[in-house]
Design goal:
CATH architecture of the largest domain: 2-Layer Sandwich
Order of helices and strands: HEEEEEHHHEHEEHEEHEEH
CATH topology of the largest domain: Heat Shock Protein 90
Shape: rod-shaped
CATH class of the largest domain: Alpha Beta
Number of domains: 3
Helix content: 40-55%
Strand content: 15-25%
Largest sheet: 5 strands, antiparallel
Number of helices: 8
Distance between the termini: 83 Å
Mean pLDDT: 78
CATH superfamily of the largest domain: Histidine kinase-like ATPase, C-terminal domain
Number of strands: 12
């Protein structure tokens, strides 16, 4: 069977609950009336009988009951065996038909009887003593009005119940439809976004929220954040795949071209050696790209595991500067070190060295000959700052927010070389975050750039003492 819509199920549930409540309310009210009306009649019978009984008990020989002729009220005086001793004149010759109603004990008995031509009456039998003898005083009043009231209420209830259900169904249809309208709008908007997933410019547009403060508004806002993140991730992934394929295409094309060239005819040993050297350089580029991609994938998955060994940051930074110095001398660029005091730290020495080499490599790559690269290390409050400042071409303001994206280059390098295949700053940011730090950048086009690695300060005396012992 085809599943019912949410609107239909909500209407059915709403009408069922209201129907049950209405039926229960009508039945309860009818039961209350059916109980309360006889109780009121019983009290009325006792109130009516009380003054008459007083007269009968005061004058045992009087025939007061026979003189009573009150419209809508009937009276009889009975002996202990139920024989009629006196009856009111409005009863005529016929007694009150008690329908088997009997008195037990000294308490009044109440029931239904008939008088005259079968008119239904409410009867009360009240036992009392008259001149030492047991007597029973019967009082009756017609029940036609009360029965008619109950019948009228029942008829009205039978008429109102289906009308109430129809009105409830109409109200619930309108209200449920109105309540589900934002959901329909969200569904249609989500369907549009689903069709736009393949668009290169992204698929996400804000979901409509009629009332941002209610549950649906908060749901739409939550989905907006989720879909915006997914859209951003999809675009980054699409851009990443495009850039990665572009970065890998160049070294692979070089390798293929060199291979075709060297296999086209016999070569000398020097030519083979030269070709193998080209192979080696291109394979190094591919290796750097793949290693960078692996590092970033581990960082994205939260599984980039860094060692936490005691070390001195100034020594790691000095080693990184020494590794880059030969290339700096080739370009006539001097590296000015301002390392200051020794700073103890807990971290992964290999990753920290790679982190520093990335900034040194970028500074060297984009700096002209005859300039300086300043490397400074200092403590600042509760953090450690490692600053790399060059005198290169700088980065324009519109590029600064994107320089840490993978394969994003604000300015291509002059010689076509790229440390980590365009992944350098992305890897640097991943390493810094894994160490609990961050990277800050200040740059102006034509005035050079300054990157500052901010790491949390480790001031444990035990670590400092342990490193001192290790060095000794």
């Amino acid at each position: 069977m085809k599943a019912k819509t949410l609107r239909f199920r909500m209407m059915l549930l709403f009408c069922s609950v209201v129907g049950i409540l209405l039926a229960a309310s009508y039945l309860a009210f009818w039961a209350l009336l059916a109980h309360e009306i006889p109780a009121q009649l019983n009290r009325g019978l006792l109130d009516t009988a009380r003054p008459i009984l007083s007269d009968i008990m005061a004058e045992p020989n009087a025939r007061d009951v026979e003189r009573l002729d009150i419209p809508g009220q009937f009276f009889e005086l009975l002996d202990a065996d139920g024989k009629v001793l006196q009856r009111s004149s409005n009863l005529g010759a016929g007694p009150i038909d008690l329908r088997g109603l009997n008195v037990t004990g000294a308490q009044p008995a109440f029931g239904i009887g008939t008088v005259g031509n079968g008119e239904s009456v409410r009867v009360s039998l009240i036992p009392f003593q008259q001149a030492g003898r047991q007597r029973i005083f019967a009082v009756a009043i017609p029940t036609l009005g009360t029965n008619r009231m109950l019948e009228t209420f029942g008829g009205i209830a039978l008429l109102l119940f289906p009308l109430s259900l129809l009105l409830t169904a109409a109200i619930s249809a309108f209200y449920v439809g109105k309540s589900l309208q934002p959901i329909n709008a969200l569904t249609e908007h989500a369907a549009v976004m689903a069709r736009n997933v393949t668009l290169r410019q992204g698929f996400w547009t804000p979901l409509p929220a009629a009332s941002p403060d209610d549950e649906l508004g908060r749901l739409a806002e939550t989905f907006n954040h989720l879909l915006q993140s997914v859209d951003s991730a999809v675009r980054q992934l699409r851009q990443f795949v495009t850039d990665a394929s572009h970065e890998l295409r160049t070294p692979l094309a070089v390798l293929r071209g060199e291979t075709d060239l060297v296999l086209s005819k016999p070569r000398s040993a020097d030519e083979y050696r030269s070709t193998l050297a080209v192979f080696g350089e291109e394979l190094k580029k591919l290796t750097r790209i793949l290693e960078g991609l692996f590092t970033l994938s581990m960082a994205d998955a939260g599984q980039l595991r860094l060692r936490c060994d005691p070390l001195y940051l100034n020594e790691v930074l000095e080693e990184a500067c020494a590794l880059i110095s030969p290339r700096a001398r080739e370009k006539n660029i001097s590296i000015v070190r301002e390392l200051g005091e020794e700073i103890a730290y807990n971290g992964d020495e290999a990753f920290l060295r790679d982190l520093f080499l990335i900034f040194l490599d970028n500074a060297l790559k984009y700096s002209p000959g005859g300039t300086q690269i300043r490397v400074a290390l200092k403590k600042h409050g509760d953090s450690i700052q490692v600053r790399f400042e060059d005198q290169g071409m700088g980065i324009s303001a519109e590029h600064l927010p994107r320089i840490f994206e993978r394969f994003y280059r604000a300015v291509p390098s002059s010689n076509g070389e790229a440390h980590s295949g365009g992944l350098g700053l992305a890897i640097a940011q991943a390493i810094a975050r894994a160490q609990g730090g961050r990277i800050e950048c200040q740059s102006a086009l034509g005035a050079g750039s300054a990157f500052t690695v901010v790491l949390p300060l480790v001031s444990s005396q035990e670590n400092v003492l342990q490193m001192t012992l290790n060095r000794n």
